Amino acid sequence: MARSTFSQAPAILDLTLTAGDDWGMQLTLTEDGVTPINLSTYTFDADVLDGGSSVQAITVANTDLVNGVIDLSLSDAATTALEGVTRTWALTWVNGSDTFTAVAGMFRVLKRGETR
What we know:
Helix content: under 10%
Shape: globular
CATH architecture: Sandwich
Number of helices: 1
Mean pLDDT: 93
């Protein structure tokens, strides 16, 4: 008998950035690693988390929702306030009454001058 697996776990994306820097990245959300998800009916929330509670909102810009593209960013003031912390982060989307954590991972802010 063939074995099947179903997972609704978020994609893992660990983020490391430097305190005092403006930070941003672009994400393309896909169905299968290739086909973009049309996100035009979705809203988004991204946060740095401590024990499941938000300690810093991450700005989400709707760049090209039809082609699954969003931008995430934090200001230099926000990264300065998070200097030296290691937490988790998560990106959730809402479509109607459905909420889904699409991407999550570790979130680390290096001290100025620190290297990995």
